[in-house]
Amino acid sequence: MLRRLAAQRILELRQAFRHPQASRSFSTALNYHLDSPDNNPDLPWEFYGKNKEKVKEILSHYPSNYKQSAVIPLLDLAQQQHGGWLSVSAMNHVAKIIDVPPIRVYEVATFYSMFNRTKVGKYHLLVCGTTPCMIRGSREIESALLSHLGVKRNEVTKDGLFSVGEMECMGSCVNAPMITVADYSSGSEGYTYNYYEDITPKRVVEIVEALRRGEKPPHGTQNANRINSGPEGGNTTLLGEPKPPPCRDLDAC
Ligand code: FES
């Protein structure tokens, strides 16, 4: 079954390369900047409240002549403070803190897909698009989400509650397919980034509706027949007490 699915996906990929116009759009949202009323360099932006202390703490991890090494944690903090995305003013502020030209910060923010360059919903749903999740049906998960929410990838629903993006492998391949729900609505203090694993198109819609109702659906595996990343139906190996290595007691050898 798995082999058949893999072969089908490989065929799809080959077709996409032969007919690029027919292929789906990949990964991240826009990587260029156009000034708009809510995203332009004239808008003031700075870290506030406890985040000012966090900035100092982050910078303390690096030698004072290598402040630029703090660019990723500072951008991450800025994104958490700014409702899940990085405005050009936020990036400029980070550049000022680490004393580099702004382009050095833009390069980082546009390279890593965890940084959002446009507004996201209260719940930003990230579908893993890498091979194990793709073979296990991540495209069907994404289609179910997009059609249920009535948006395209990286668009925000009209009520501002949801947006759907794509992320590459999030290290949960054994429980593929999986999505992450990022919730930036409570700033850096209440920010959450939860994995929902072993999902199906039906389950992912149920999760969305639970979030809409303000519930907190249990994260982790959604397969009731497995515990965490253990095999479905229970352990198949290491069922007894493991034997100690031979000759542990050198006098007895
Ligand atoms: S491929 Fe999806 S978590 Fe690794």
TrEMBL record:
Q: Which GO terms describe its biological process?
A: mitochondrial electron transport, NADH to ubiquinone
Region span, Disordered: 212-253
Note on cofactor: Binds 1 [2Fe-2S] cluster.
Under Gene3D superfamilies, the record lists: Glutaredoxin, NADH-quinone oxidoreductase subunit E
Which residues are noted in the entry as [2Fe-2S] cluster-binding? 128, 133, 169, 173
Q: Which domain of life is it from?
A: Eukaryota
Q: Where is the composition biased (Polar residues)?
A: 220-238
Which UniProt keywords are given for this protein, alphabetically ordered?
2Fe-2S, Iron, Iron-sulfur, Metal-binding
Give the GO cellular component terms, alphabetically.
mitochondrion
One GO term in the molecular function aspect is: 2 iron, 2 sulfur cluster binding
What cofactors does this protein use?
[2Fe-2S] cluster
Give the PROSITE patterns listed for this entry.
COMPLEX1_24K
Listed InterPro entries: NuoE-like, NuoE_dom, NuoE_N, Thioredoxin-like_sf
Homology family: Belongs to the complex I 24 kDa subunit family.
Q: What is this protein called?
A: NADH dehydrogenase (Ubiquinone) flavoprotein 2
What's the source species for this entry?
Salvia splendens (Scarlet sage)
